[in-house]
Amino acid sequence: xxxxxxxxxxxxxxxxxxxxxxxxxxxxxxxxxxxxxxxxxxxxxxxxxxxxxxxxxxxxxxxxxxxxxxxxxxxxxxxxxxxxxxxxxxxxxxxxxxxxxxxxxxxxxxxxxxxxxxxxxxxxxxxxxxxxxxxxxxxxxxxxxxxxxxxxxxxxxxxxxxxxxxxxxxxxxxxxxxxxxxxxxxxxxxxxxxxxxxxxxxxxxxxxxxxxxxxxxxxxxxxxxxxxxxxxxxxxxxxxxxxxxxxxxxxxxxxxxxxxxxxxxxxxxxxxxxxxxxxxxxxxxxxxxx
Length: 290
Description:
Layout: E1 11-16, H1 23-35, E2 42-46, H2 48-58, H3 62-73, H4 77-80, H5 85-94, H6 102-111, E3 124-130, E4 136-139, H7 144-151, E5 161-163, E6 166-169, H8 179-184, E7 187-193, H9 208-229, E8 236-239, H10 256-272, H11 283-289
Parallel strand pairs: 1-2, 1-7, 2-3, 7-8
Antiparallel strand pairs: 3-4, 3-6, 5-6
Helix pairs in contact: 1-3, 1-10, 9-11
């Protein structure tokens, strides 16, 4: 299988989108890809995709993916979004942000196998957004934890992260699925791991953070289709199909194991039906993208 996605002249990038707790879907995709011998020369990630991408770049093996699965299966909402009465009162009085970075920071300190981006086994590029100008800021060296914390900082929920005179926030704002960043970094084959959106729900999610995350996933789906249709003809891309129907919200971690298992099966089936032999935008994304 790996021969179908790599040769001596074209660099392959795994491109990880954002999507909150739906990042568990990417873990299932990774499991299937790596188990089937698919590999990458670099990794590009935005938002929750920065977490998954960075972990994979540090341990780009099936063993590493299985360890990442174990981490995801043990996550609760409080681990990532530690909202308490104290944080709510702080938000009311300060009127700046709702959630502390400490949940994400501790998760990374406990599990990320490297501390500087340049020390990962694969080149890793973390996409963030300058919250003042709206420009993408791509971090490829320096503190891995600070880069990922910045890339996952949803505006209004998390405070932006100061960095060299800028204020950095969620990478999904400026580069939802950072395919163009991957090309700028030298990739000519893109294997894109989206997360999808709650495509089988007839009601919006409950809660401010859940709604903000859901809106981001919708934006990601729409922008990905547009970005792919604008790519030069010499760029190969393969979009791993997201799950649909997909219940829950990107703020809900109760369905993590189910998302992982379904995604493994779905990606196995896609690979078995020549998923890496032609460009294709999955209908689950195209339907929403227009």
